[in-house]
Specification:
homodimer, DNA-binding, Rossmann fold, 12 strands, 12 helices, Arc Repressor Mutant, subunit A, alpha/beta
Chain lengths: ~300, ~300
DNA sequence: TAGATTGTTAATCGATTAACAATC
DNA sequence: TAGATTGTTAATCGATTAACAATC
């Protein structure tokens, strides 16, 4: 049942009920949000932006966690407000992009002042769905599975490891990060009981598609895949992949351009990049080339 | 010293010198490439594309490792040629994109036939710089560092773990993946001796920037960062980041949209997405909502 | 030659960015 | 009010895609 009451309540009442709320220039907010979350909404909520309600660009979604992290750090230092310039710098993006990104969420800033840190933390968390609890299963408890089970960044963001699963009897029964490793055959039951909608695959590549199919059959609709495999899934299931080898290969590509051997194929080297070669050459007395499989 | 002799050599000679070369419709190639690599270049090399030599788009570079992986699998199955349609499907992209991507590398296909698998493996490997040996240091040998040290995908692509480093005396001296964990203070010497240009940071976030600075000072110009921190580096140094928590948050965002509670803020649900909610509801007898921190 | 498939074009789409009017 | 900073506009840039002429 949903209670949505919008109204005006005096500033003194707000201040009484909710401590450390800095963003109450005009104390109007929705009552519902207080009932639901213990936090009133920002006055800016009333002027709902044109865009809100559909289609936050993917590129923006991918940056929201960055902003959230920077904001959380500011919050821990009890910084009350932050400008787009400061926040952008902390998040490693430019301020125009940040303001554009935030404009998709709504008008949550105050001209001439900046953004209220606490309020923005809450809004972004809500937008990302982090005000919910997300039970997650991790399938494949090898080195990487262990690492993920122990990763602190999960729990702190509303992700809860519902189960660690493996098909190998030698691994089942052991424990990782204080949790028992259970057999893959328990997946279906766990997924149903705990309403698991997110699965992490850290199996060897050969097992990944099969595990994926089984996760999907068990009702999992979001998959984070660490196995170096292209997964095929039905519509409505999201897959994101993290591929260590691919990241290194992309770095190698750019690194190769920097060191710039093989004149024939070489582009005009960007001045900044040439510095790396020079630095290495200076420190080693060689011409900076790598030991080459392909002798020049 | 560079030997570049271009010439025409009879087909029978090619076939004699180089086995399992399927792509010799017209046996003209550059001699240098044979001297250098043991592989002659493709006839198509002579018609150098307009673009080649500068500016392969980043989006294309990021996909080359995907194509390479798919091609390697085909190669292992001894498939001689592949069409853009087949390869695109194996790599999980559409064929127009694949052909456009390859067009930045050169005209390496044969109209009416497709692409020679072996030849393309070689060309993409070369483009990515994987025909070189890339010594890598991994800094921070916790769970994740261990996992990476053991990751098979590195070695198979020309990446070699030159050293595992940690600052914690309790960890230094132990071993991972058959390599000793050495003290962070050995970084500079190792980096110079082994000409390390790629570093992987798997430290806690608090140490990451400091480690990064030290890597850069030691001549490392490409960094793969697993710590959830924004790193600042001088021009000419590339940083790529892998952030497990961010990936999960992006999934949560989309997952939240699928399950579609909270009607007030909810966009018009895409039909495909609604299926997930229905499926879960059907299998559990609930309305598909998650246990909510924020009661509705 | 006929059939197949590439490489390229051009249209479209989405993301980035600087600039500035709106407004706190 | 004056100063500061947002939210938005519009221009630009880069990526995607379908379609098809080129050509094996």
């Amino acid at each position: 049942m949903r209670v949505t009451v919008r109204g005006q309540i005096g500033h003194h009442l707000c201040a009484h009920v909710h401590k450390r709320i800095a963003w109450l220039p005009k104390p109007s907010f929705t009552l519902r949000s207080i009932v639901a979350t213990g936090r009133p909404t920002h006055p800016a909520d009333r002027r709902r932006p044109a865009n809100r309600g559909r289609g936050i660009p993917e590129a923006t979604v991918a940056r929201l966690p960055l902003y959230l992290r920077a904001l959380t750090a500011l919050s821990e230092r009890s910084v009350p407000t932050v400008s787009s310039e400061e926040l952008a710098s902390a998040a490693g993006v430019n301020s125009a992009k940040l303001r554009k990104d935030f404009s998709y969420l709504g008008s949550y800033g105050t001209r001439g002042v900046g953004y209220d840190v606490e309020y923005l933390v809450y809004q972004i968390s809500r937008e990302l769905g982090l005000t919910q609890d997300w039970p997650v299963v991790i399938v494949g408890i090898g080195n990487l599975g262990h690492a993920l089970a122990n990763y602190g960044g999960f729990a702190s963001r509303g992700f809860r490891v519902a189960a660690l699963l493996d098909a190998d009897p030698a691994v089942v029964g052991s424990s990782a990060a204080g949790l028992p490793v259970r057999h893959m055959d328990e997946l279906e039951q766990i997924a149903e009981e705990e309403q698991v909608s997110i699965g992490v695959i850290t199996t060897p590549p050969g097992a990944a598609q099969q595990v994926c199919d089984r996760l999907v059959a068990a009702g999992v609709t979001s998959i984070l895949n660490f196995a170096p495999t292209v997964l095929s899934v039905p519509d409505g299931v999201d897959v994101r992949k993290v591929d260590l080898s691919i990241e290194l290969q992309i770095l190698a590509f750019h690194e190769q351009r920097k060191s710039g051997e093989d004149g024939a194929d070489q582009p005009v080297a960007a001045p900044a990049k040439a510095a790396a070669k020079l630095r290495r050459a200076a420190s080693t007395g060689t011409d900076g080339d790598f030991p080459a499989v392909m002798p020049a």
